[in-house]
Amino acid sequence: LGHYVLEMDGDHLYLIGDGYSSEGIRPFVDRYSLVNNQTERLYQADGKTTLESINTAIDMKAGKLLVRIQSPKDFPNFYVRDIKNDKLDQLTQFENPFSAIQDVHKEVIKYEREDGLELSATLYLPKDYDKNSGKKLPMLMWAYPREFKDKSSASQVTSSPNEFTYPWYGSPLFWLTRGYAVLDDAAFPIVGEGDEEPNDSFRNQLVANAKAAIDAVDEMGYIDRNRVGVGGHSYGAFMTANLLSHSNLFAAGIARSGAYNRTLTPFGFQSEERNYWEAPEVYYTMSPFMHAEKMKTPLLLIHGEADNNSGTYPMQSERYFNALKGLGATVRLVMLPKESHGYVGRESVLHVLWEQDQWLEKYVMNRKVQAP
């Protein structure tokens, strides 16, 4: 029962790292000496044209690793890498099942927030789009906020341009086939250093992250910044509602399975360790429900009727919808029968895709902006 979590050879330990760095993702294997506390780098992935992950050590004495290698067009396959003899033997032969999007343009872009914090995101452009044409595309941004206690950790690049372009049921990549640019996995760090907690300035940092991302792609000349939609799932839905409430950066939003009233999660959420009674102003300020009167942007709410995630009970979307509707906001609520926090039924998944597509077509793709 159980499995080994540490590989040892006499006085040496073998260490595997993910290799997140300013250069991208380059996983590595180190040998650490217990005698002299010295570390020797035995292997590090190149990371220039492929994305490699080290799954496990098969036999470190022989220098053999089980690795998984992929590229934007090559479906992930498993290999045995011999780091002593510099050999690579392929074990699986999985083909690309998503040929319709294999030729889309993909790149990891880096940019700065107004306070100098370095950010990154993965930008996708439709496969037939001419980057020199000057044509302005609508854009869909998808993200998920994360808390950090220092700026150096928040600035780490955790995306790779060499990752296989792999859509899933909740992916925004489907809209590449509908003529949108897609900014996926946009960095949304919420940083609090020293005595300051990240959520003390949550809203301001959230809007600053969004503005920096839109500015970066706009400066590249690819998008119409008046036709940008934003979406997210769970805490990403919470992010979306806050962005629409406290900025005018977006044409519309999609919020799936989110929480919108933080007083209903009074003993903490995400990385927030303070309870409501210790920091009531933080809970109030962060809750979109408390600022429903500010919502002026069309918002699509989607939630599973059987969501049993402790922070995102269906009541969150139902009550938020009632508040927004009562205040005259443009909002639609879709409740999915028998679905939990994630959606698994074929009918549910297809319906969610249809609802999102209809919303984006109406309020983003075909948005008309009157001249001032």
Give a brief description.
The chain has 372 residues and is α/β, with parallel strands linked by helices. The chain has helices at 151-154, 202-219, 235-246, 280-286, 315-326, 346-365; strands at residues 7-9, 12-17, 20-21, 24-25, 28-33, 39-44, 51-59, 64-70, 77-82, 87-90, 105-112, 118-125, 137-143, 146-148, 181-186, 189-191, 223-233, 252-256, 299-304, 331-336. Helices cover 20% and strands 31% of the residues.
Describe this structure in words.
- The chain has helices at residues 151-154, 202-219, 235-246, 280-286, 315-326, 346-365; strands spanning 7-9, 12-17, 20-21, 24-25, 28-33, 39-44, 51-59, 64-70, 77-82, 87-90, 105-112, 118-125, 137-143, 146-148, 181-186, 189-191, 223-233, 252-256, 299-304, 331-336.
- It has two domains: 7-90; 100-365, Rossmann fold (3-Layer(aba) Sandwich), CATH 3.40.50.1820.
- It is globular, with a radius of gyration of 23 Å.
- The protein is of the alpha/beta class.
CATH class of the largest domain: Alpha Beta
CATH architecture of the largest domain: 3-Layer(aba) Sandwich
**What gap, in angstroms, lies between the N and C termini?**
69 Å
User: What is the general shape?
Assistant: globular
Report the CATH topology name of the largest domain: Rossmann fold
Order of helices and strands: EEEEEEEEEEEEEEHEEHEHEHEHEH
Q: Biggest sheet: strands side by side, in what order?
A: 11-12-15-13-17-18-19-20
Largest sheet: number of strands, sense, barrel closure: 8 strands, mixed
How many distinct beta strands? 20
Strand residues, percent: 25-35%
Main structural class: alpha/beta
CATH-assigned homologous superfamily of the largest domain? Alpha/Beta hydrolase fold, catalytic domain
The tally of structural domains comes to 2
**Sequence stretches where pLDDT stays below 50 over 5 or more residues:** none
- In helices, the fraction of residues equals 10-25%
Average pLDDT reading:
93
DSSP helical segment count: 6
